[in-house]
Each structure stands twice: as C-alpha cells, then as structure tokens.
C-alpha cells in the first residue's frame, strides 16, 4: 500500500456485504475492481447499486456515478494484480478461504493490504497456509457496510502491527469506526453481544411474555435508543449517580448475578424456527425486503446525522 | 379516573425516577402533587428540574413554568386524597411497598389509577394485602422517564382489564410508548435483555478482548444504532434477505446455538466490581455526572426527533 490513502481497491464477492463495500468505496471516490464468479455480476451489482445509492451516509448519490467507478474482473489473479487494498467477502468456508488466500497472495502486490470481511475466522485460520500472512487482517463490518460505522479489526499471531495500523487508517478514510480487538475471540465482539441478547428475545417470545412486534418495540424504545447514544458501561456509570458504575454494581450486583441465572435457554428446534419464521412473516411481511431495508437504512443514517450534529454543536460550545 | 384525560397526578417519591415523572407530567400540563418524605424535597426537586428542563422531549422548557405546576404535600393521605392517577416510586422493598399500598388505597379515591414504577415486583406482590387491588398496575419506566419512551405495563391476577387500558391511555397521553406484558416475568422484559447483554460485556472486558471504552464504542456504532431503528427480530428478518427470519435461522441457527454455549459467565466478585468501577472512573470520569447525563439525554432526544422526522416523511409520501 502506498504512503497516501489507497485509491485502488479490489472487492472479492458481490453478495450483500460485498455490495455494501462496493457502494461505500465508490462513494468515497476509490477505483473499485469487482471480482465475482457470478456470471451476471455486473448486471446484479449495477442494479443493486440503485438501492444502495438511496441510502448512502450524507444523502442519496447518483447510482450512475457510483457505477462509473467500478470495473468487473472475473479472473481473481487479474483482479488483485494491481490492488492496494483487497476486501474479501467469500462464503464462510474455511477450506475455500484458505485456497482463496493462497491465490490472492500469489497474485497481489506484496504491499497490498488483504482485508477479510469474515465474521468467524481470525487471520490465523484463513491465512495459515501462507508463508507470509503478515498483511492479512480481518475487517469485519456490520451489515450493511455502507451504513453501519463499526468495523471490527482483528489481527493474527503473524500479522504485522503496521498492517493493523493501515487497516484502521484505511477504514477511517472511508468514514468507518474501526475497533481493534486485543485478543481473538470466537465470533468477535458485536456478534457475541447480539447473540446474547437474541437468546433472551427468543426465550421471551416463545414463553408468550410479549409478541415479536412487542419485543422489537421494547428494544427500539428503550435499550436501542440508549445504546445508540451511550454504551452499556457508560449507561450504568450514569445510572449509578454520583457514585458511578462502582456504586451501581455494589448496590445492584447481587440482583444482576441473580438475573443471569434467570435468563432463558431456548432450543432452536425445527418447530421453534417454524414458529419464529411464521411470526416474522406475519409481523413484518414477506416480499417487501428491499423497501424495509431502505427504510431501516434511512433511519440509521438519520440517527447517525442527528448524533454527529450534537457532537459538532458540543465541540463548538 | 374521570372519562377524559387525567389532570391531577400524585407522584410519590422524588428520587431520580420520581423526578423524571414530575418533569414529564408538568411539561404535559398536569397538576402534580409531589409526595416525598425528604425534608428538603421542594428545594431538591426545584433545583433538579432546572437540569431536566434542558432535556425535555421537543426542546428545553422554562424550569419556573414546570415548577409552577407542582404542589408539595408531605402527608401521604392528603397527597393522594384527590388524585386521579398516582405514580409511585418508593424504594424496591416489598414490605415497605405493601404498607404503602395499604395507606394509598385507604386514602385515594376509589377510581384512582394506582401506578407503580417498580422494576421488580408485579401487582400480585405489592398489592397482595389489598381487598381490591383491581386498580394497581405496574408502569415501569426506563431511566430517565422524561426522555426514554418505553413504559412496561404489567397487571396482576386481580387487576381490572379496564385499569390496564387506562394506564396505556394515560401513558400515551404524555408521549410514552407503553407495552403491556402478557405474562408476569421476573424483572420484566427490557431489564432482562439489558442484563443478558451486560453479562457478555463484562466477560469481554474482563478477558481483555476490548477495553470498556472500546466495548461501548462497538455497541454505539453497531447494535445500538441498529436497535434504535429496528428491533432484533426485524433486523434478522431483513438479514435473511428475501427468505426472511426463517431463512436466517435455518442457515445460521446451528451457529447461533453454538454461540450461546460460548457466552461468558463472569462472577461479580468484589475484585471484579473494583476493576470495573476503576475502569469506568478512568474512562468516563467522576464528578461530571450531571453534564454527561444531560449530554446523553440531548443525544437521546436528537435520535427520537430524527426517527419521528423520518416516520412523518414516510406517512406523507
């Protein structure tokens, strides 16, 4: 990667996550090579870009302008031959990823930064067959990557610290909020938290305490709103009054430990999946995926804009 | 309670939660009787109202105007004698609450709606000594009640359905988003979800995967933002693409069950509380509680405003 901000990025895979990266990189003026084995890749990407262009952070973009920054190169070696950054979005299959990284490493310039969107495999797993895996870094986005700011950055035992620093700088340059994990942990941080919450959500709906719609309404109108503005630790630090988190934990710690004992442990049987699937279709409909996704993303952008407005007022005062 | 919207509300207890209700009810033009045993209650409430007035939904209010709607009545029987609605915020002590409800029931008009902010005790517990507990309903707010929209509404086995309906209508009339629980469950819904997430947050910080600040940054920039706009079920329904939640669970269900096995189980030892307390003080400071709380609430209001802006645009289009 050259000293300045990279200008040539290769995106491998054009599924939902790949598409989000493609839209984001193009919107930030990068030249994007799209590598996909889907025969119809160009048509699908250009078509989907129209939807993504509506929900770009900072306001809608011209889809034709975004599409003009893309070049479709179905051959992997050719696609990465001149890349400064590669963002890989292949399926979560260990053998497939290992083979892919062997092929990428053989064809990409030695200075290229090799970023993986994987949500499950640290660099030690996907780059284990490489002689020098020093520039392989996980850059795990949250869906959709063009909207949600977080990127979890994860290095492996042989990753160069410099590569981590470059990944952080690169993601910041396209408006992301990177957080570097200090230790590998299965499924990284955000998905573990999401999984912990979802377990209790499924329990409460299965038990008939609330419907799915009511559960979602509870979350959006309390903890979701709270956690969009302050994280859980800051929230409880403030909840403790002048004594902070220490006071909160001292007063409520026993109740908190007790509450952990009381959390539910649902089983995802076929019957349970059927029940939840049917309830979701009934509650949110089916066949309206694109419209609901656009709505979600417009709302998410509105929240981001509102919060950055408050931040900049604060800095000026 | 009379047929129209209540105009006379008695708030019992003027701690943090009571104060939030007082501010909210006054801002909605209700006549508020404040019943508190603190000798300095009037001075404290009027002083704190200044802070709350800054962060009222819809914009700052004149604290003197809010204060003008309050009357301080230290004697409980007198305070509830003419109430249409009572919102009780006494400490979470079962015996204390039971005695309190005996005294309230003896002095309040028979038609008064008796609402409790308790976060732990369903009506069957706090009203068990009453001959007729039919009008006792839990209305559990999220802190601070003048900002966070959710109120969890919980009835008991002897609660009148009409009282639940009146509680819902009353909370809606002051801008809240009530959700009625269909079954009692310990700690209700939102706090159980919060507790599930916090358990994993503490685990990850204790294990050194991320610092407290990094953990909070992960949440605010991914799942917090997401859950402010769509609840977890809608989020995964959209995450499943055209196949919805059913497809998502069918593809990722096994991984999800596996992830539940991998969640952490921290113990809240004294040492752990010390560690987290010190980290919170270092990260967020101490002695700046009021300023950080105002900042949190301005941000939360900005998010609420942004989302209601999007909703009304959508309805017009």
Automatic annotation (TrEMBL), chains A, B:
Biological process (GO) annotations held by this record are: fatty acid metabolic process
Q: From the UniProt record, which GO molecular function terms apply?
A: NAD+ binding; oxidoreductase activity, acting on the CH-OH group of donors, NAD or NADP as acceptor
Q: Where are the transmembrane segments?
A: none
Question: Matching Pfam families, A to Z?
Answer: 3HCDH (PF00725), 3HCDH_N (PF02737)
Protein's pathway: Lipid metabolism; butanoate metabolism
Q: Which UniProt keywords apply?
A: Oxidoreductase
Q: Entry's Gene3D superfamilies?
A: N-(1-d-carboxylethyl)-l-norvaline Dehydrogenase, domain 2, NAD(P)-binding Rossmann-like Domain
PANTHER family to which the protein is assigned, alphabetical: 3-HYDROXYACYL-COA DEHYDROGENASE FAMILY PROTEIN, 3-HYDROXYBUTYRYL-COA DEHYDROGENASE
Instruction: Tell me the protein's name.
Output: Hydroxylacyl-CoA dehydrogenase
Organism classification: Bacteria, Bacillati, Actinomycetota, Actinomycetes, Micromonosporales
């Amino acid at each position: 990667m050259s000293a300045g901000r990279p200008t040539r990025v290769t995106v491998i895979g054009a599924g939902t996550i790949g598409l989000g990266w493609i839209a984001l990189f193009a919107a930030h003026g990068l030249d994007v090579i799209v590598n996909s084995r889907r025969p119809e890749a160009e048509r699908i990407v250009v078509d989907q870009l129209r939807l993504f262009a509506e929900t770009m952070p900072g306001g809608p973009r011209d889809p034709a302008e975004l599409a003009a920054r893309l070049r479709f190169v179905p051959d992997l070696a050719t696609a990465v031959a001149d890349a400064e950054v590669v963002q890989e979005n292949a399926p979560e299959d260990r053998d497939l990823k290992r083979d892919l990284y062997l092929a990428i490493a053989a064809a990409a310039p030695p200075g290229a930064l090799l970023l993986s969107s994987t949500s499950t495999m640290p660099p030690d797993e996907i780059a284990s067959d490489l002689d020098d895996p020093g520039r392989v870094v996980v850059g795990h986005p949250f869906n959709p990557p063009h909207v949600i700011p977080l990127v979890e950055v994860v290095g492996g035992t042989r990753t160069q610290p410099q590569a981590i620093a470059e990944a952080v700088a690169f993601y910041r340059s396209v408006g992301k909020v990177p957080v570097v994990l200090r230790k590998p942990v299965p499924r990284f941080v955000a998905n573990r938290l999401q999984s912990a919450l979802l377990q209790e959500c499924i329990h409460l709906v299965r038990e008939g305490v609330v419907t799915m719609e009511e559960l979602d309404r509870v979350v959006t109108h309390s903890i979701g709103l709270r956690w969009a503005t302050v994280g859980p630790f800051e929230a409880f630090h403030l909840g403790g009054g002048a004594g902070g988190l220490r006071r909160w934990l001292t007063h409520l710690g026993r109740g908190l430990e007790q509450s952990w004992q009381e959390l539910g442990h649902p089983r995802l049987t076929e019957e349970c999946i059927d029940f939840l699937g049917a309830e979701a279709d009934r509650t949110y409909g089916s066949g309206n995926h694109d419209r609901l996704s656009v709505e979600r993303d417009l709302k998410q952008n509105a929240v981001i804009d509102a919060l950055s407005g408050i931040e900049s007022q604060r800095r000026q005062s």
